[in-house]
Amino acid sequence: MIYELKITLKDVGAPVWRLIQIDSSATFYDLHRVLQVVFDWDNYHLHGFLVKRSKGEQIEDIEIKPGREDDPDEYPNKMETYNEKEQTLSDWFKLSKDKISYVYDFGDNWDHEILFMKKLKAEEEVKYPRCMDADNRAPEEDSRGEVLMGGVDLKFNYSNESIEEINEELRFQLPNLISVVVEDSADDWEKVLAKAKWFHKLKPWERLDDANILAVEDPVTGEKLFCSVLGAAGEAFGLAVYIGEMGYLNLCDILDNRESSLEAMMNQRCLLLSFEDKTDLDKADYNHIRTYSIPFRGRKSWPQFRSYKPGFYPWMMTNEEARLMKLALNQIIAIYEEAEIELEMPDMVLEKKVLARIPKKDKDEIVYQTQILDLAGYPEEKEVSLALSELDLKRIRKLKAIKGLTIEFSMDHVIMPTKENPNKRAVLPLLVIAADHDEGLVMYQNLQQEHYDTYFPQMQLIKAFQTLEGIPEKVIMNERSAQLLKPIIDKLALHVEINEHLPVVQEVLEKLYEQMEIN
Question: CA dihedral defined by 494, 500, 504, 510, rounded to 10 degrees?
């Protein structure tokens, strides 16, 4: 993949810039060498890179520099530092308008703003890196004082011939860096955007509704993707792709109206493509689209992609998730275009069957066959292992039963996204509540802000009982909590009632969200 970068030399009294194209796998050391050539520097002085914006997020205190071993006592530095020979352009340039500063000569402080413009496919037989355009000369070495006094004329109109002279200089000075790039197919986003545009043009929601589910088997992992076309109601248009066994169960709950939209958002494993107005896109989404060459225009036609994962705030899709979205779009477009009459699709919830696209290997190619897939017994029930020690169990067995006490026990992700690093996905904390069902009092609560393992929920039930100083006569919890806690429920022979409606817990959550809105 080729990156197009615009590099502007700042604060020199004239617009001095270069437009270059370079392999995305190039290191920042490679980029340093290229910048020395295209700005006609002599590499006499020190240099470094400062990350300003990555993934559309403002960044502070991250430096990419030559790998010298500085004495931390002599040169105190709060910067998070990376070696320029180990960091590639693709590590940091993710979205259009991502920005990194290249500073050359810490005395004269020549500051170059590197702006990521877009990704391009490598052209056949073209040698990269190359300069595509330029404006005005760069100043000479050690001339900052003259530039500040206005005594340097940098005006120069570059022609095609002078641009070619820069490229000849690149090939002469950096022969070991110049190469013909072999296109990397790891980035699926250009194809995803192209397929999304075609999907929107087909308007499959005019013949399908969100209950018409198509299953697609991933030839790489064997997982099933359950695809639901959105838009039959004429409001929100797009495609929801539910991933694997967890996604299937989420979708069944939604179609069976067993989960509210809020609960579904916090617990589902799903990829969502929605079509929005340009003005409604987040800046990061708009810059992501601009990173590629696929054009979009019109109302409700700009694609927005989101990844939903239990315990995490909705986030932009990863490259692997983009591959899955491309697969889903390919197959739902294929089956939609092949159908000459109305598509007959089984009711997945009632019939436990679904129309499916199954991959088969034909020589060296993978082809897809359409068939009705029987979902009886899918997914196979998996046992949750006991994560507590015998000592933990002995301690809890010593507690006496509390007659007449019924508690509601809940473990719910709450929409209070937290994250330490702006480049990492925000976590939805898990709020644990044990409340007296009859008195409406919260007896125990805990907020887990990090992602948890199987030990955590089991231990939380034990801690709730220890706080109560006894084991309640009855515990009410939802089905999801009961599945996680089944080993403890069986070991202690607890009387558990499964109920998705926990009135005391719901009241606590409503008050929590009201307080968050006030603040």
Answer: 150
